Amino acid sequence: MIGCECEVCTSTDKKDKRLRSSILVQSSETTLVVDTGPDFRYQMLRQKIKHLDAVVFTHPHKDHLAGLDDIRAFNFFTKKPMPVYADLLTEEALRRDFYYAFSDTGYPGIPELNLNTIAQEPFMVGDIPVIPVLVWHLKMPVLGFRFGKFTYITDANRIDDSEKEKIKGSEVLVLNALRKQKHISHFTLEEAILMVQELKIPTGYFTHISHQLGKHSEIESELPEGIHLAYDGLILEFP
Ligand SMILES: [Zn+2]
Ligand SMILES: [Zn+2]
After folding, report:
1. Which of 42, 127, 158, 176 is geometrically suited to a Cys-Cys bond with 208, CB 3.0 to 4.6 A?
2. How far is the CA of 63 from the centre of ligand 2 (A)?
3. Range 102-110 average pLDDT
4. 24-60 burial: b if 16+ Cβ within 10 Å, else e
């Protein structure tokens, strides 16, 4: 956190250096990213991502959208608009926050986007099947996504029973766990652990972690078997 001198913010452990939450999902043919937060540009540079087929959004909060302008680099290479998948609430925010990308000025160098409206219906991005999972971020509906055996859920503090069914059977669940103290719109560490256990998911990884949670190495050692803290640059493979 900017200006903070707590033991997490001043830690030299790389796993305590947390940028905004996002994942890249890749098959042999397709590469997509879930959310483009303020760190999107640096994350793409750091991981040396040269090609991106689509962006899929979870919800309209700024820490998940703000970096979309830098999609321009991919437009430049492909000479095509970037396919974007978002629900109506997120689409509204995109049209407002990136209004210049939706105006007919013909001005060169603006991000080119091709909006696809999604709801709860499964959809395909290239050869990657995507199943949206509706979760609640206080009162805001947020989309989690299941990709085969892998489910990614960020920014939630409640999941309806019907949506839990869509997650069950996943081998890996990535779930948000902000900190130990109660929060109005995010799962706490304990709530996230209980959710992974309730859904009987063999492996859980926690993301969207606040500096208030504590140091990676200390929290990691307190977690039950099969549950881990995710960290920036973590790669999970599904053969
Ligand atoms: Zn949020
Ligand atoms: Zn967030």
Report:
1. 176
2. 5
3. 82
4. ebbbeebbbbbbbbebbeebbeeeeeeebbbbbbbbb
